[in-house]
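Board notes (copied after class):
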Amino acid sequence: MCDYSLEFYATRQAQENEVYVTTRFPSGSMGFAAPGDCTTAVCVTYGTKMTLENLPPELQHELGVGPIETIVFARIEEGLHHDGVRFSNGRTVLLHRLGVGVLGSMVSDTALPERKEAPVEKKIPVEPAE
């Protein structure tokens, strides 16, 4: 949804047909914000399908993904932060790992089957690239 570390900021729910950007808030937490409004955290419901663009090349290589990917927003039950993303290849990482400047947009609900409560994800360790 919105990591508890963002509770001190104004928040609003994500909406279709909008583009968001990963932003590091003054608390150090990473979250989505609308471009031009880095003071309001945009909350995404777990289980929401999104398209991510502008993924960093080193992360693409490490995770075996491309610069544009469709993901599912996921809750990860390990560590301090819980917002994460699950790629179509099964790799799951914390939202923090994406870095600043990744663009995200919701995939239309009309293209998805009925959404149920998303299961809690376990963080899959990612080995550093050698």
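Comment from the instructor: Residues 4-109 form one domain. Helices lie at 57-63.
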